Amino acid sequence: MDLHELPRMSTLVHLDRDLASPLYIQVANGIRASIDEGRLSEGQRLPSENEASDELGVSRPTLRQAFRLLENEGLLVRSRASGTRVRRQRDAPDDARASASEVVRARVDVRLIGMVVPDWTNPFFISLCAGVERAARVASMRVSVTDVMEDRRVERRTLRQMQRDCDITVAVAPRLDDAEITELLDPRRTVLVNRAVPGFRSVNVDATTGVSQAVGHLVALGHACIGYISGPASSRASGALAAHVKQEVTARGADFLAFGPVEPTIGGGASIADEVLNSAVTAVVTHNDLVALGMISYAKSRGASIPRDLSVIGFDNIPFDAVADPPLTSVAVRSHEVGRLVVHEISEMLEGAGGQPGVVHLGSELYMRESTARPGS
């Protein structure tokens, strides 16, 4: 190609807006592939940000991110005088060129963390991601978050893309089984949250203390039959929480009933409310606060009084709990601290810290409010 002839960006870059991969990553991948395959030559000038964004149908900031990423990798050089031009790396043969993430790690301090969360509408996950982002900013890292909407197929596809496009993958409460996680993810570039898989670093919430306090509180109030409302069947955390609650309830001589599974949403809580109200339980612990709030709202609409007819304890201690009606008693997890620990694990991984991958545990505790009381009071 004539070095003075501007290439058409649409022939270099194919964008798939259905993919979880950010558009700027797709743009950078297309340009990088064109350089590697010889379709762009050293010294070749690229269209301006305005021209390229118009042709591809993306924003200027998206093009700017893609150009900066390739500039950081040493594949592009930019100046006001000559615009954006290709600068091939001469120190590595074409068939041995490093991956994008390896080049970024070698040349710049900024690294891209790809986070996968099961449900972006859950305030706990929003807070957790905010904690990761704040700690990552201090460590000169950037964070890209994708919501997989509790869909295993979307989760599988997204994790595969994150491993290809990002330096580090953070999988939050993944729904895939251990074999799939081991097959899809490189333990040298992955941190798990609320999930332990052999060979991987993980940061897990230890619910033992919080659950023990919650059940002890209910028994002390005089509740003799206590239930647990479980979240999605694919949630390992929900299964572990159910086992903790059952163990604590039976150890204290009370009866235990299991409900669910339900969606981990307000609607999920509403869907199980009638079954809970018509059972023998006088108190329940729920998979998360959204389930608790949904069940309380529906129960009140049916004429039930909370906590007189049913005491309710949630899990996560989200900000809405304190202003709920009644304010929700909940087991608290310091989600921002989870984020800090995740970035600490990433830093150790990138610095090649010794020792075997393991599980970092973060404790929990009960915050008592007005959704629990003595039965009938």
TrEMBL record:
Entry keyword annotation includes Transcription: yes
UniProt keyword annotation of Hydrolase present: no
Domain HTH gntR-type: 21-89
One Pfam family linked to the record: GntR
UniProt entry keywords in alphabetical sequence: DNA-binding, Transcription, Transcription regulation
Protein name, per record: GntR family transcriptional regulator
Organism of origin: Brachybacterium hainanense
